[in-house]
Every structure is written in structure tokens, then in C-alpha cells.
Amino acid sequence: MSVSGNQVQQWDIDGHQVGPTYDGSHIAFSLDGTQFALCQGMAVVIQDTSSGAIMAKFLGSDDDFEHCCFSPSGKPVAVVAGYTVYVWDITNSDPHLIGTLVGHTSYITSLTFTPSLISTSHDQSVRFRQICTSSAYPAPVESKSTSAPIKSITLQVQDGIAISSDLGGMVKTWDILTGSCKASFQTPAQGLRQGDAQLVNGRLTFAWWTDDKIHIWDVEKGELLQTVNAPGYNIKGVRMSGDGSKVFCLDRTSVQAWSILTGEVVGEVGFGGLTPGDTLTIDGSGVWVSFPGLNPQGWDFGIPGSPPVPLPNIPLSRPHLGIKQWTTGPSRIKDLVTGKELLQLPGRYVKPTDAWWDGQYLVAGYESGDVLILDFNYMLPK
Predict the structure, then answer these.
(1) HSE of 150, CA atoms in CB hemisphere, 13 A
(2) Is the pTM of this model over 0.70?
(3) H-helix or E-strand containing 287?
(4) How far is CA 83 from CA 22, 61, 104, 190, 210, in A?
(5) Residue 244 and residue 206: Cα distance in Å, rounded?
(6) pLDDT greater than 80 at residue 330
(7) What phi and psi values does residue 123 have, to the nearest 5 degrees?
């Protein structure tokens, strides 16, 4: 379909108009393509794509509706008028308002469900909200503030949490569905440069680098598990393996791994003159390193008695996302393999101090102490 002036027309792929012309200024389709929502001044109409039959219609603003979108389930529909987002439940032909979302200070420019509801505005902000139809008012899932600058962020979807560490040595766990802080722990890592935290077999473990050593800490018991010698300069990243058996360190010339149990070096890969980026991604015993202008390269550090084994290229069917930062202007979420840009992060989300990607969720931490959680499940190919 296309929008021209205040009319919407339906076309086939050969460029021929099919079906009737509808009055409206903005259109959005449901995920399964069976319905579309049409903004008609102060009204929104839900219609059947095939027949054009009106399935639901609602009013709810003193201003004209300018944007609309379906949730992935097709039941809640979000619409915009001015600075405000309205969310309607269209489960039956008698839709009802389930939330009025405010917070932007200027006109909203775009709206999408991912399934979190994302809105952008001329006020240079992006707002992320989790919509729950069982609640009288949708609960916002936006950035959550700690109190000190975030220095590392880790994502563990299987446990439903993100884990942050800040400059004051505080480690916190966050619920990735609600954005709320679940627990806080103080560690001796004040002033850390690089760090990583993992929940392994119910044990929250934290590793950080200072000067020429990597310290590994049992967060909940408050005990030092291991200290290993590491390069004393040009460290770009410290991460732990998903099973909690190894800690990895990325510097300008190589990536190295140590056993958390014994503190011994268990593998090292040199880059042969290539300069790595700042992205060190862990997938089980596999390690992926990004290189500017090249595909990320990976190695398996988990084969007993064998040096790290090169891994095949990352499949292009599922993007390998990262945040590209610029000196000025918004940061861009990009596929690090193809270079395709998916989203811009203006306003206070411009420059994260650390980010983590797991194939669905991207989390980022900021100097302000904010933690941002983005769900890309409905934006990416399966």
C-alpha cells in the first residue's frame, strides 16, 4: 500500500492498483499481514487486509493521530498524537485504552514494537517501554540509573538478567523484562578499567583488570578466587567464558585465556599485525574479535590439549550487532559483518561505555550510570 496526501491505495508488485482507496494519513500492518491500522484524523481504524472490512475503530485524542503500529502479537496497537502515545487493546470489536504514555517533550517522529515499544522524538530522545495488557498502565522499560559510571555490561538471557559493574565497584543484576534492579553487591573493584561478570551455576563471578593483573571475585561470598598476571597496557576487553572456566583478555596484539581454577594460561592467539576493535564476544568456549573493515574472527579455546582452533565465519542469517560511535551526532547500531545500520541512538544514549550482544538482546551501559536494554527479536531474520 502507499500513502498519497490523505489517501491510502493498495498495489500489486507489478505496479497496478488493486482494491479500493482508503482515506487516511498513516498506515501500519500487523506482523502476519492480515490487518492494517489507518490514521484518519482523530480516529484510528483497524481493517482486514483482504476484504477491507472494518474490524475495530477508536477515538482518543484532541489532536490528529500521526503514527501507528501493531504489537508482535497483533492485539495491542500503539498510536501517536503530538507528544503522547496511546495503547489500545483490539482483542475484540470493542477496543479499549490500556495506557497513555507521556514523557517526550516534543513531537514524536516514529513508533515501533520490538516487542518493547520504542518511540523517537524531536526532543532527541528514544524511549523504550514494555507493554503489558494485564496492567492498567504499561510499565516503562527504559534506562535504569545506578549511581556511578557503568564500566561493563553482560547479558544472560537464559537467566533473564543483565549484569553491570560500575566505577565504584558495585555489581548489579537487572531484570531484562522489567528493567528493575534485582540485586546489588559491593566488590573491591573501585576504579576498574575493564571487567566482566557472569552467573555460572548459581554463582555470580566478577573479573576485572587493574595495572598488570586480572582479579576474579566470588561476588555473593565476597571472596577472591584467583589473580592472574596480564599485560599491563593497551587492554581493550576482559570477558569470562559462559561456563565460568576461563577469563579472556584482549589487547592490541592478541587475545589470551587463563583458567579461573588454576590461573594458568590455556591459550593465546596473535593477530599478525591486524589491529582489533574494542569488541570481544564470548559464545561458550568460542571467542570472537572484531577488526575494523573486516569480518569478526573467532577461535575455539575449549578443545582439551589443543591450541585455539579458528572458527568459521559468523553466519550472515543472524546479525552480529555492535554500537558504532562517532565524535559528534548519534551512535549507530550496526551489523558488524555487513555494515548495515539498524538504529540510531540519539540523546543521552549516544556514547555507551560498554555493550553486549547475544543474538536477540543488546544491552549498553553509560557513564551516567544508565543501563539500556534493547530487544531485536522482531527486527531481525530468524
Answers:
(1) 30
(2) no
(3) strand 286-291
(4) 26, 11, 6, 41, 46
(5) 10
(6) no
(7) -80, 5
